[in-house]
Structure formats: structure tokens, C-alpha cells
Amino acid sequence: MANLLVTGGAGFIGGNFVHYWAQRHPEDALIVLDCLTYAGNESTIAGAQQAELVVGDIRDTALVEKLLSEREIDTIVHFAAESHVDRSISGPDAFIDTNILGTNSLLRAARKVWLDEGSGRSHRFHHISTDEVYGSLGPEDPAFSETTPYQPNSPYSASKASSDHLVRAYHHTYGLEVTTSNCSNNYGPYQYPEKLIPLFLLNALHGRNLPIYGDGMNVRDWLHVEDHCRGIEACLDKGTPGETYNIGGGEELPNMAVIDRICTEVDRAFAEIDGLAERYPDAPAAKGRSTHALKTFVKDRQGHDRRYAIDETKARDELGYVPSWTFEDGMAQTLRWYIDNEEWWRKLAG
Hints:
Layout: E1 3-7, H1 12-24, E2 29-34, E3 51-55, H2 61-70, E4 75-78, H3 85-90, H4 93-116, E5 124-130, H5 155-174, E6 178-183, E7 185-187, H6 196-205, E8 210-213, E9 219-224, H7 225-238, E10 244-247, E11 252-254, H8 255-272, H9 276-279, E12 295-298, H10 313-319, H11 327-340, H12 342-349
Parallel strand pairs: 1-2, 1-4, 2-3, 4-5, 5-6, 6-10, 7-9, 8-12
Antiparallel strand pairs: 9-11
């Protein structure tokens, strides 16, 4: 039996991880530490029976120390982060506070309880990061590997790069047993509707424009959140302390291809699901028109990275990680989840 502290566990990826771990490791205890800011939602982890929510801030080092000691935590899975690039451009301070100072607070608490107080408890601090720390790729550049130099281009990616370095430093300086995973763009259930896929899905249902940055040809690797959770599980189970692993979905696509898939899936859903037109009468598909008509080009984001791509060879060879979701199947599943769970997103998106 393991005792896990999951930071940011009421958010998108953290919440999916809580459900994933609870289903596959029912004997383990899950303590979820979350501030419940705009992207954190207690209902996201409803149904995960062994998950206990503690509302608190990762920057509260004393609280983290207390949880680690009193709950005999042996594993920290650190999701808590500000993650929306547009928000980091308009307000970078929150990203510095949470992603850098918050991570440092967790590391300090882990060092004190696991190392300085001499409990001798076997432990692991797993840090979830992003491929955005590597910067932007040209069309013919090789995909990001774990040895790609860091070149972050937004306040968000710079704050995540800083936190990655702190995690590495606590291993090499103090001996804290850490692993880090750098993932590509996640999608799936419970994602806050500011990110591309849920935003465009909900806009399509309500007949709102689909705002496409620039020419729509920025390329990302798309990772279904369940595959990401499997990758994290592999890092915890088989990862070598001090090592970093890239977790990708194997689906490198331009944004236009993603948006076209969203439009196609929405049109298909209206053709196949009885009553959908009555629920969402403003959708073009409810009136027999194509969702593609909502596509609108807007001014590009400041400093918009052109291409990300993940080389997951190390994770495959050392951890046995292989993504299981195709983007086509994952998009269909994701759209159906949002249609079936209107109560969850309605209070967030209006």
C-alpha cells in the first residue's frame, strides 16, 4: 500500500490521474492538495472513493510538511501549476508564484520530512512538466528528446523550465529521489474550457465562432490524458531517480487538422444522437449546416511557438510506455464526454 499526495489533483490532468490511480490501485491512499482556483473543481474527483481532498496551497510549506508526516506520504505526484499560455502573457506573476515558488515549497517540505528528519522512508517526488520548455521546432527539426536544450518562449514555459531545474537540483544536491516527465498537449475529459479542444467543442455547440490563431498551421503532438496517466504510472513504477522522460501521444498535427476533426465530430454527433439539436439549437449542425462554417481566423498569439514534437524513445525503451489512443478515437470519446457531462462544464463555461 502506498500513500500518495497529488498536488493539483482537482484539475484536469491531476483529476484524471486520481480516477486512473484509484481504479488501478484501490489499496492506495490518495491525498489531493488543491487550492480550487478557477481550474480546480471538487466535482472532478467525485467518485474516487479513496481520494481525500485537502483545500490548501502548495506554497504553504508547513501544511505540506504536516501532510507528509501525519499521512505517512511516500509519493508526491506534482501536477499543481498555472498552465494557460495566454494567461501567462497577460499576467505572468501568478505563474512565477505557483510554478516556481510553489514547486520549491514542495521540495523543501519533502527534503525536510523525507531526508532531514531521517525517517528512512522510501520515497518518490514525481514532477509533471511540459514539452514547451524546449522551445519551438522548425518543420524539419528532429522531435524533442530528453537532451534537447531548454529554450522556453513564454512566461508559462519559462516558469515550468525553472521548476524542472529546481527538481533536478534537489536530486543532485540533496539526494531527493525525483523523476520528471515532460508531456505534449493533453486532451480528454474534465479539461477546463479555456483550452483549444473543449473551447472549440463548446463554441460549436453554442454556435459561436471558432477563433483560429494566425494561419492555423502551428503543430502540436496530441496526448490523450489517459495515456498521460499511464505514462506517469510507468515513471513511478519503473523510472530511475534523477531521470526525465518525455511522454507523447504520437499524434503530431497542425491546429487546423485538430479543428477540422472537432467540426467533423460535432456534425456526426448531431446526426447520430437523438435530441441534441433540441439541446443546442444555436449550433449550425442543429440547423442542417456544417460546423466548419464557424471557423474564423484571428491575430496570432504573441510569441506563438510554431511546432512541438515528442521523441518518446526513452520512455518506450526504459518504461514500456506506448500510447494507446488514436486522435480520432480520443476526439470522439472526448466530445461524447462533454455532451454527457453538461452539468460539469455548464457552471464553468456559462
